[in-house]
Structure formats: C-alpha cells, structure tokens
Amino acid sequence: MTHRPFLDPFKGIVAKRPPWWMLRQAGRYLPEYWEVRNRSKGFLDLCFSPELAAEVTLQPVRRFGMDAAIVFSDILVIPHALGQKVSFVQGEGPKLEPIDVDRLEARGAGERLAPVYETIRRVRLGLPNETALIGFAGSPWTVATYMVEGGSSRDHAKIRHLALSDPLSFARLIDRVVTASIDYLRRQADSGVDALQLFESWAGVLPEPMFRQWIIEPTKRIVEAIRATHASVPIIGFPRAAGAMMAAYAEETGVDAINLDQMVPLGWARTAMPTKVLQGNLDPAVLVVGGQMLDDEVNRICDAMADRPFVFNLGHGIVPETPPAHVARVAELLKARG
Ligand code: 1CP
To answer: Which of 29, 33, 117, 146 is catalytic?
Structure first.
C-alpha cells in the first residue's frame, strides 16, 4: 500500500512536519485556474465537466505539492441535484430560485451528480500515489441557508425565522438535504476519495438549542450513516466560528477531525478536543500579507501542535488576492521542519 502522509494523523501518527493542504486551494488566485474557467460556460458547468474539473483540482498540487487535493465542486450542487435552480453571477455570488420544499426531489439526487464521481476517478489517476484526495459536502444547515435565503446572506434572517416559526417544514427541508448528502458522500467514497469534509460555514449564527437541533443532530446522522457503510473513511467537520459550541459539535457529531477557523485559540482547542485530529487555523489574511508575519504564524501554529495529530491548513478559504508565491513559501517553511 502506498503511504499517504495526509492520513497519518488519522492513525494517531505524529510526523516531524504535519501534512498540509489549503481550503479553496484550487481557484481564483491561480492564473491557470482562470485559463480553464474561461473555457467553460459558467461555474456550475466547470463543476460538471469532469475533464476540466479534474485539471483544476490537480493544478495546486502540481504547483505546490500539497499532501491532499480536494475535488473541485461546490456545496451548492446539492440544491441543484434536489431540483432547485442554482446559478452563479460573476461578482455577485450564487443565486437560487425561491424554494418550494414540497417540490424538492430527494430521491436519486446522488445519481444526478455523476460528473463529480467521474472527476474523482480522473483526479485519482492524475495524482501522485502519495497524495490523498478529499471529497466534501456542505453541512445541511449551511446548504439550507443558501436554499432559503436565495444566495449569500449577511444576517440569515429568513432562515432563522423559518426554523423558529415553522420547525416542521424546516425539518422536512433539512431531512431532504441530509438524505441527498449521505448518498452523495457515499458515492464520492465509492469513487475513490480518502477522506470527507463537511463544511458548516454558517455555524456561528445559532443559539445553543438551535445549534443542537439544526447543526449537531443532522451532522451526526450523516456521520453515522457514512460510518455504517464506509467505516475507514475519516470525516473532518468544519463548524466555522462555532465558538463555545465547537467542543460539543466535535464530541456529539462523532467526526474524526475538526477544521479550526482562525478565531480559535490553539491552547483551548488542544484541551477542549483532546481526542480529535485538528486541522487549520492559519488566517487567510496573513497568507495575503506574507513576509515575516507569515513565517512566524506558520511556525507558531506548527509548534503549538507539534506533539499531537495535526493537519496544517487555513482557518477559511484562500482569497483571490493571495499571491501564489506566499503559498509556495508555506510549502518551503513546512519542508524545513522535517
Ligand atoms: O467563478 C468562480 O470561480 C467561483 C468561485 C468559487 C469556487 C472556486 C465558488 C463559488 N466555489 C468554488 C469552489 C469550491 N467551493 C470548493 C472547491 C475546492 C477548491 O476551490 O479548492 C469548495 C470546497 C467550496 C466550498 C464552498 N462553497 C463553501 C464552504 C467553504 C467556505 O468557503 O465557507 C461555501 C459557503 C460555498 C458557496 C459558494 N460557492 C461560491 C461562492 C461565491 C459561494 C458563496 C460564499 C459566501 O456566501 O460567502
């Protein structure tokens, strides 16, 4: 069997230098991404063109040699597969048609995402043997925010109002997303990914009772279902900005690892989540600025995690202004550690 260093922390192995990859490592900060992106009609067309999506997935690994690639797709392919129209308007972000919960087609949603599984098979063939491949989905609450709000939202007022005022129909919506996501994640695992990540980008907007009901419970259902069929595939949860709810999320959902956002103090994370693999924490803004500050931050984070299972990563996605040379500098700093 090939040794994939990315998987070491999940086996309890602490290497001299941590394995690494970066959230949103494929994309708009890379000129070679734009070259491919401009050849496709729109962003979703790119996600559903296996040849192009595979190429874009491989680009950052080729350039920087990360220990893992993440399949190029988006969390909003789930609403698309459920029959809700999704489009991406340049400079404005995603737009979703008004939702009708009764018309969502839960059955066969995973089947409709066949191009993503084809991308996974192609990426696996193009990746170095020692590089892992990560599959992903948005977590149900975060996916539902886009479905109910119709796009990105600053205050998530509509969805919070719906969840509070009509919890029964909101539960039906969450159920449909859970069912489709389980199917989607299982098929990604069958197609060859080594690990799965669940993105809960909007974990930071709910009070405790709602956090338990709409974040912990649905995530736990997904984790249990994946475990039942694919016990050996590690699952990384990313409850971004969950604050004081993060440790409960880690314990109660049963995920193997937690991606830490940049607001989480590392000393706290070590004590509060002693049995979890930890990943992340570098501020994407530091990666933009670079210089001595970047060197110091990379080393500070690695030092704080040097004696426990850890995956080096960002606290949120790479932003388009990031100079690629700064990502190369991170690769160099990590190499210098061992
Ligand atoms: O035209 C373009 O190129 C669009 C930019 C873009 C890209 C490159 C979008 C639109 N999505 C993606 C890819 C993507 N999205 C990946 C692939 C891996 C990679 O780039 O390396 C992944 C893992 C995601 C995940 C994703 N999409 C999240 C969760 C992570 C996070 O950043 O919080 C979310 C919230 C989305 C929704 C989304 N997709 C795109 C946009 C502009 C948005 C809205 C973001 C927001 O509301 O702030």
So the answer is: 146
**Confidence (pLDDT) at 108:** 83
At 207, list the tokens: 């009070």
Question: Within the chain, which residues score under 50 in pLDDT?
Answer: none
Of all protein residues, whose CA lies closest to atom 28 belonging to ligand 1?
Answer: 75
Say what the pLDDT of residue 308 is.
98
Taking the CA of residue 152 as reference, the ligand 1 atom at the shortest distance is 47
Helices (H), 8-139: 31-37, 43-47, 50-64, 77-81, 114-126
> Has 28 been annotated as catalytic?
yes
Using alpha carbons only, give the angle 2, 122, 219 rounded to the nearest 5 degrees: 80
Count structural domains, the chain: 1
Q: What residue owns the CA closest to ligand 1's atom 33?
A: 201
Tell which residue, 3, 18, 64, 10, has the closest CA to residue 311: 18
Beta strands, E only, the chain: 68-70, 86-89, 93-96, 132-138, 195-200, 235-239, 257-260, 277-280, 310-311
Tell me if residue 74 is catalytic: yes
CA–centroid distance, 338 to ligand 1, in Å, is: 32
Provide the CATH number for the domain around residue 75. Answer: 3.20.20.210
Range of the domain at 173: 5-337
Evaluate: CB of 238 within 6 angstroms of ligand 1.
no
87 pairs with which residues across the strands? Answer: 95
What pLDDT, on a 0 to 100 scale, did the predictor assign at position 105? Answer: 87
Active-site pick, 28, 212, 308, 337: 28
pTM value > 0.85:
yes
pLDDT of residue 1: 72
Given 4, 8, 29, 74, which residue is catalytic? 74
